Amino acid sequence: MKALRRFTVRAHLPERLAALGPLSTNLRWSWHPATQELFGLLDEELWRQVQFDPVRMLGEVDPARLDELAEDVAFLARLDAAAADLDDYLSRPRWYQNQQAKGVSLDGGIAYFSMEFGVSEVLPNYSGGLGILAGDHLKAASDLGLPLIGVGLLYRSGYFRQSLTADGWQAEHYPPHDPQGLPLRLLTESGPQSSDGAPVLVHVAIPGGRVLRARVWIAQVGRVPLLLLDSDIAENDAEMRGVTDRLYGGDQDHRIKQEILAGIGGVRAVRAYTHAYGLPDPAVFHMNEGHAGFLGIERIRELVTTGGLDFDEALATVRAGTVFTTHTPVPAGIDRFPADLVRHYFGGDNAANESSLLPGLTIDRILGLGRESDPSVFNMAHMGLRLGQRANGVSKLHGIVSREMFQPLWQGFDAEEVPIGSVTNGVHAPTWAAPEWIDLATRILGPELVEEARGWERLQDLSAEELWSTRNVLRGKLVEEVRRRVRASWIERGATSAELGWTDEVFDPNVLTVGFARRVPTYKRLTLMLRDPQRLRALLLDERRPVQLVVAGKSHPADDGGKALIQQVVRFADAADVRHRITFLPDYDMSMARYLYWGCDVWLNNPLRPLEACGTSGMKSALNGGLNLSIRDGWWDEMFDGENGWAIPTADGVVDEARRDDLEASALYELLERAVLPRFYDRADGLPVRWVEMVRHTLQNLGPKVLASRMVRDYAVQYYAPAAESARTVAAENFAGARELAAFRRRVEAAWPSVAVLQVDGAGLPDTPEIGANLVLRARIRLGELSVSDVTVQAVIGKAGPDEELTDIVTVPMTHSASDESGELFVADLALPLSGSVGYTVRVLPHHRLLVDPSELGLVTVPNP
Ligand SMILES: *Cc1c(COP(=O)(O)O)cnc(C)c1O
């Protein structure tokens, strides 16, 4: 008989072992090896069986064993040390507390919204890079002492688990997770004061007078709480219960309900949390990708219904404190809904009446936020950009691509001027560096710096022997793990143990090991390595200098194209002559990824440039001394320095994709044959001296740059602190700034059509001007209803192309010199900054002290040609 439902009952801990409770539920254990070892001591065999999950461990360990340990002096000493260490971690002043002492303030802190969070494999609430990044963001924020709250959904089945059929096709499974068996606690109205307060239920109105309710789980990620909304409760009808069933499953209607719950319900959950815990309201709301964009309209609703602001004033307030991060350079990857679907949920009988989803807001204003050129479409990224005064991409290259992609929202501005910056992603070192590296780093740096991931570059001080032996140990661990997983996969595919003797010999701990693991959208080109199967086979089977290749990745369940690519790799790797050198491991997740990053000598990445926004797996490999072999895309474009790995030349501009794949695959084989393999196998007394030097250089040069702590500090300094400051400024004195900014915006938008550049004269140049020569520009401007203080007038100078298009522009503010009946006169006296073919023009922009960027409102006037 099968159970209808399953739940977990935790053991009653003996009094003396009570500290195991918080040690198991605070996910800080997941990046603290000493705490993991402590749980292993409860029962080594069981620790493996429960897959290194402390909560499951406490559920399954024999109570008699617990009684025994409660008397075990050595164990108690370790327990007390771990408990004291956690207390210290949670209370010691960190980077942010030091910044505060210097006057930097994030006020009430940051609410960080994401549709997925990959904190640990025991909380499988992620599908890939976006979620892992969000998890690393929380952990680094915790390490830095940043006041941050994570917000997302708890999916009953998370993302799917992947296995293979006998013929190599991806099969998907959705095992349900019982929240009671996860490291979660319920948010109750009484917060931390008492354990028996009523659970908070967040309500969101749905058309037809229905209500979507969700309880709120809290996962404790070190110092950072992660709020996860869960609609699978008896108070909901069947359809509403299913809203949080799966990550990225279901149709558009399902998806919009999830995003409404995450965004609108998410803000309500934050309010309930800060209320129950007596905390201040967050100053900054960070949308990690557009999915959570509805949070902005919920905040507008709050301000309209209780703050006495109108829509524009509320929008100005929300914009000041909102940061939007875009993650996709592929227009097709952007989250869009049919406008009618948005109208259905936010308009009609769910429109601006008292019991509606967002009372006080009209559907037209909401639709306007997600508007794009096609009026039947609602674009979540456009909404993110309209709701956030600050926005960024996730690598320098992705910043450039995003400015181009979203340029149509800033008509009249060049792509370089689009107000989207970049913060390059990073990875959480204590999570992704092997325990061996952590031990070595602790020896050199001490535990505190390791915990804050500072000083990582000092691993360069290790001797070549130590570096190389660590690499060997980690490759050895990977080989063991590959054998275990290959065997399990074949058994799942229907093989019997008797025919699997060969799996004991799969992979060789002394062979150069290349890893390729990531989700399988087309642009990542999983099968590029198979472009010339004979050439690959020769590399794998080379007698003197072989390569072994481990491949993993999930395809979206609806993407049969991706599954066919996986099948192609699996079929190739199944062949008896190569299966000891190449393998596809099913079910790529954090628990597998770790071994790959630790053990692979080379991390391969060959996306179609520039479609990889950042990529983070190569950073995790680099932290472990892995060398990247990658197309110059995402992070690698800015961090490759010629000595920390290899850049696969791209055939940018070759339009025929098949030909481009041929060219790039051939470049990849060539690099392996000529550069990578010789360097790895060239030995002096067994030591690959030049290889180890590259490992050393990677640790020293990339170590400090690829860190999530660097990323979160960048966000804190460049985005959160300025956003908190803007939010404070517009909200002061009963939102005087927001009212003023909204009134200004309304006024300039209305008056802008009458603004014109009437006349421009240049004077002062000699006949043959040289760089630095003096140029005096005079412009006559008509301002219509606006006054001089409402605008900035700029001289713009740049290189003039054949079609008079200006590039490499420099702008110089012009000063108001006089008024007459035909307009306002502005003048600039400047030194020519460029040589060659130079051109100039003049433009008018809105000016207000509360704007962050002159392009912000998308208004600009240039002379008529
Ligand atoms: C890091 C990571 C990813 C993301 O890797 P990319 O290089 O960004 O594709 C995906 N899945 C897992 C399990 C990871 O650890």
Automatic annotation (TrEMBL):
This protein's UniProt keywords: Allosteric enzyme, Carbohydrate metabolism, Glycosyltransferase, Pyridoxal phosphate, Transferase
Pfam families, alphabetized: DUF3417 (PF11897), Phosphorylase (PF00343)
Gene Ontology terms, MF aspect: glycogen phosphorylase activity; pyridoxal phosphate binding
One GO term (biological process): carbohydrate metabolic process
Required cofactor names: pyridoxal 5'-phosphate
NCBIfam families xrefs: more_P_ylases
Protein name: glycogen phosphorylase
Protein's organism: Rhodococcus opacus (Nocardia opaca)
Record gene name: glgP
